Amino acid sequence: VKSCYEYEESASTTFPSELYTQGEEPVILLIDDDTSFLMYMKEKLEKIGWYVVAIANPQKAITSFYDVRPDCVVIDIHMKEANGFEVLGFLKEKLKQQFIPTIMVSVDNSKVVRIKSYEMGADDFIQKPFDLDEFIARVKRQLERKRHIDEVLLVDELTHVYNRKYLKQAYALMQNEWKRLGEPFCLAILDLDHFKQVNDRYGHLVGDIVLRKFAELLRQGTRMSDIVVRFGGEEFVILFSKTKIQEAYEVANRLREQFERYPFQEEGATFSCTFSCGVVEVTDGDAPFEHWLRLADSALYEAKQKGRNRVVS
Ligand code: GH3
Ligand code: MG
Ligand code: MG
Ligand code: MG
């Protein structure tokens, strides 16, 4: 599965649409070289309301992974073009920041294969051929686990980006990289402009739609390794990993231009929204998170003072 590593660079720069934009139904990614099995499963699982992406080519599965953003991945172990364990290894390596349950399936039910599945981090192993009802029950269980873990631990319910609880953890990781390897990183605070007016004019539900769109745009416009957090109400924080201030400023400004242009169409009205942003580079690996937050916050304050819809670094 060599090509998956080559893909990494481009994958991270074209971050895909959030899975949640595909609707609320769970997204299941099936990776199996047996196309008739895939067609059968797709039909059965879509009947119960799941969105199924079935891919026969493991290389393609890996590259499309970023676009699909599945809630559960089912991987056949024995495939012509690659070993399912390689696919699993890739997913585990690249997705440390997210929890996406994986289920290995195989006709080979040997102890070695089962143990290897769990040791490599798979959440379940199912022998083929299997009973469809049992398969569905076991995938359902994994979907419940994912929802639980996302909601309780890391992910903001409304916008599906990370919540505040995760931010400190992520900061500690980047701080560590700064100390060990001298990797620079930046912290940005973003606050929607006159957001109260959006709520007042169009209602709270439309306000929520704006928040979701905003979060989606932030995810799409940043790299996989960057961390987007809903910090509170209509304030978001981005940690730009391995990034110097100049680049972080440029990314934030590009996001600003994109958001400003986005035409919201709600309640019979078309309107646009803007945000202001303060961004700082972390230049002292020992200073606590709050220190940089304060600095970014005063840059944000300056952006608001200067007339909003701008980035200040
Ligand atoms: P400013 O440009 O100075 O930031 O103006 P603002 O109106 O955005 O100012 P402020 O920060 O005081 O207002 C934030 C508003 O965001 C107030 C609150 O009603 C709204 N808000 C916070 N959380 C949510 C939410 O989850 N959903 C919706 N719809 N609105 C929210
Ligand atoms: Mg096979
Ligand atoms: Mg605010
Ligand atoms: Mg605001």
UniProtKB/TrEMBL annotation:
Gene Ontology terms for molecular function: diguanylate cyclase activity
Keyword Lyase carried by entry: no
Membrane spanning residue stretches: none
Span of domain GGDEF: 183-313
Domain called Response regulatory: residue spans: 27-143
Statement: the UniProt record of this protein carries the keyword Phosphoprotein: yes
A GO CC annotation given for this chain: plasma membrane
Top-level lineage group: Bacteria
Residues bearing PTM 4-aspartylphosphate: 76
A GO BP annotation: cell adhesion involved in single-species biofilm formation
Keywords of the record: Phosphoprotein
Name the record gives this protein: Diguanylate cyclase domain protein
Organism: Anoxybacteroides amylolyticum
Lineage start: Bacteria, Bacillati, Bacillota, Bacilli, Bacillales
